[in-house]
Specification:
The complex is a heterodimer.
Chain A: E1 36-37, E2 42-44, E3 52-55, H1 71-79, E4 84-88, E5 98-102, E6 108-117, E7 122-129, E8 134-143, E9 148-155, E10 162-171, E11 176-183, E12 188-197, E13 203-212, E14 217-226, E15 232-241, E16 247-256, E17 264-273, E18 279-288, E19 295-304, H2 307-314, H3 320-336, H4 342-358
Parallel strand pairs in A: 1-6, 4-6, 5-7, 6-8, 7-9, 8-10, 9-11, 10-12, 11-13, 12-14, 13-15, 14-16, 15-17, 16-18, 17-19
Antiparallel strand pairs in A: 2-5, 3-4
Chain B: E1 3-15, E2 18-31, E3 35-39, H1 46-54, E4 59-68, E5 71-72, H2 78-84, E6 86-89, E7 96-100, H3 101-113, H4 119-132, E8 143-144, H5 150-164, E9 168-172, H6 180-197, E10 200-204, H7 209-213, E11 218-223, E12 226-231, H8 234-242, H9 245-248
Parallel strand pairs in B: 3-10, 3-11, 6-9, 9-10
Antiparallel strand pairs in B: 1-2, 1-4, 4-5, 7-8, 11-12
Helix pairs in contact in B: 5-6
Chain lengths: 361, 250
């Protein structure tokens, strides 16, 4: 597969895909002006189940399965000597999630992770990102026919972390990919969840929640490519912002190509501004080259905190801080409840409460 | 025995064109066990009175006082007023997405009672209160007021009143939007709380039909931001017949 070398240029910030990103804060990830360690930071938190393996083969053995025009992704492909490979054998059904974590430490890192979900396998993969980091990351996820994969990434980084990543899913016939991107920590987090379909009946459900407080830049750039008939996609990202210079960017590109008849897609982004001084950009973009579709739509809203809700709760005796927390938890509940894990739900809501308590400190 | 005393209450609302005067000196005293019906034309300021007592931030008190058993209500935050024993059943209850009714009720009762209700008895208490208001238990898992019909929202308000056990309740058009059966059920709910706890009630309404179920001790005519006439239940019948014409032209 050929790389798009024409785009393989150092961005200056005026390019459409970089115009929202604070390049100066990327620590050189975009132009590789930083030293990168040959270090693989990803590991499993627990013993892996039978039929699941995590290895570190030579990069040459696993050439990219798609062309990316992302600068950082292409830098990674040029530079990494070894990749991380997570394989889930065919027909494997896991009741417990595969829990991976990154320990990046103080050295900058370029990382390529390939996840292969075998035919008719069913699994949940969680990647936990904690601590400090400067990481350029590519995750290539392929779902074979009939596979079902829940893919959860938790950006709970320390406040100095820089994370630029592309998570690309290639979804075969009748496979179902559900992703949850949760970005709460970090200084700059810029993740591009991208999706393509290779067979009919494929389904991508992309959820995200993000919460930016004082000075954080959290950017999510979704791209769904409908290039086969009868595939379905849903995108639902919700974000809250509080504090000075809290910044979020959400880009939702959906392309329905000629021949992708029977496509069914809907994308949604909602932002909640909790204080002055925060800014949310939301840019949905739908391009349709065929009329033979089931449905295509998008919605995007950015609104202020609803004082009427706060008043209603307080008028029932609930103190204002608890009322605020209830409303914000309520805002995220629609998506967090879809995780179907009480443990994860509590953990995320707890993190959101913590962030909220820190605003303006 | 509790007393809510409203004296010379004057209230403005902040609009784009500046402060707009709405309440022009309201005097009213409500004691435990008493029911005061407030009737008046649209836009006369009845909801403004209700919201001002509850502490809605939109309203600016320019003059006067409100006390509950001598304590200055206007100095209290919104939640403190509720803890002191005031309850407002709203004309337009607010939807709170993502917050379940059961979570909301438990949080509110915990705040008002000062301790979390016992898990064992709590579930039964809520179930019984819902059953007596003919509310399906499914409502517990739904989000607060989200997608509720008009009548369901009103029942939900009275459900909260039953569980929070206030001293003085202000019911702002709780009867509007209720069908005949719901009106009876909701009225029975109010009467039950009155019987159990000697509740004082300010009942804002446009119709005498609710007054057949909840007997008022006093009827006040509200027009142009203040009370313009007071009387017994017979005044309500007169209003129904003759309307407010004689009060508005004044
Ligand atoms: N933000 C505002 N800007 C301008 N006028 C306002 C504002 N808020 C309230 N008012 C006005 O205050 C007046 C009193 O309103 P209020 O809701 O108290 O009336 P009400 O007696 O409860 O009427 P109804 O019987 O229709 O419920 C109305 O004329 C209303 O238009
Ligand atoms: Mg009103």
């Amino acid at each position: 597969m050929s790389l798009l070398t024409s785009n393989y240029l150092t961005p200056h910030g005026r390019e459409e895909e970089w115009r929202f990103t604070p390049l100066k804060r990327l620590a050189g990830l975009h132009d590789l002006s930083l030293d990168v360690a040959d270090h693989i930071s990803i590991s499993s938190k627990a013993a892996l189940a039978a039929g699941v393996s995590l290895t570190t083969p030579d990069a040459a053995e696993f050439p990219p399965g798609y062309a990316s025009n992302d600068v950082v992704t292409n830098r990674i492909r040029q530079n990494v000597k070894k990749i991380s490979l997570l394989s889930i054998d065919k027909d494997i059904e896991l009741s417990e999630p595969i829990f991976l974590k990154r320990s990046c430490g103080n050295t900058a890192e370029l990382s390529r992770l390939v996840i292969q979900a075998g035919v008719n396998s069913r699994a949940t993969v969680i990647i936990e990102n904690n601590g400090s980091a400067q990481i350029g990351e590519e995750i290539e996820i392929s779902l074979a026919a009939g596979a079902s994969l829940n893919f959860i990434t938790l950006q709970e980084w320390d406040r100095d972390a820089v994370h630029v990543g592309q998570h690309h899913a290639i979804i075969a016939k009748d496979a179902q990919f559900t992703s949850y991107v949760v970005s709460i920590g970090g200084s700059v987090v810029r993740i591009s969840p991208t999706v393509e379909f290779t067979g009919p009946g494929a389904f991508a459900d992309l959820y995200g929640i993000y919460f930016a407080t004082d000075g954080q830049h959290l950017e999510h750039r979704i791209h769904v490519d409908h290039n086969v008939p009868n595939a379905k996609s849903r995108v639902n990202y919700k974000g809250a912002l509080a504090g000075n210079d809290a910044r979020t960017v959400w880009i939702g590109d959906v392309f329905i190509h000629k021949g992708a008849d029977g496509t069914d897609t809907y994308e949604l982004n909602r932002n909640l501004l909790l204080t002055d001084g925060a800014r949310a950009d939301s840019v949905p973009n739908l391009e349709i080259e065929t009329g033979e579709i089931i449905g295509a739509g998008h919605a995007s809203t950015t609104g202020r905190f609803d004082d009427e809700q706060l008043f209603y709760l307080q008028s029932r005796g609930i103190p204002s801080d608890i009322a605020r927390r209830l409303v914000i938890r309520g805002f995220f509940a629609e998506i967090v409840s879809k995780l179907k894990s009480e443990e994860l739900e509590e953990r995320l809501m707890g993190r959101i409460d913590d962030e909220l308590a820190k605003v303006g400190e | 025995m509790s007393v809510l005393e409203i004296k010379n209450l004057q209230v403005s609302v902040l609009t784009d064109a500046g402060n707009k005067e709405i309440l022009r000196g309201v005097d009213l005293t409500i004691r435990s066990g008493e029911t005061h019906a407030i009737m008046g034309p649209n836009g006369s300021g009845k909801s403004t009175l209700a919201y001002s007592i509850a502490g809605h931030p939109k309203y600016i008190i320019t003059e006067g006082s409100v006390t509950l058993d001598g304590a200055d209500v206007l100095e209290m935050s919104v939640d403190e007023r509720a803890k002191a024993g005031l309850f407002l059943a709203m004309q337009y209850p607010v939807e709170v997405p993502g917050v379940s009714v059961s979570n909301f009720l438990r949080t509110a009762v915990t705040a008002i009672r000062g301790e979390a209700p016992k898990v064992r008895t709590w579930v039964g208490e809520v179930k019984a209160a819902m059953a007596s208001l003919n509310m399906d238990t499914d409502f517990s898992e739904r989000n607060v007021n989200e997608g509720f019909s008009g009548g369901e929202k009103k029942r939900h308000e009275i459900l909260q009143m039953e569980l929070l056990k206030p001293k003085i309740a202000i019911l702002d058009e709780t009867d509007s939007g209720l069908d005949v059966d719901a009106l009876r059920i909701v009225s029975e709910g109010v009467n039950r709380v009155k019987a159990n706890s000697d509740l004082g009630v300010m009942l804002i309404t446009h119709y005498t039909r609710i007054l057949r179920y909840i007997k008022p001790d006093y009827v006040h005519v509200f027009a142009n931001g203040k009370i313009v006439e007071e009387g017994g239940p017979e005044l309500a019948d007169k209003l129904e017949e003759k309307g407010y014409a004689e009060y508005i032209t004044a």
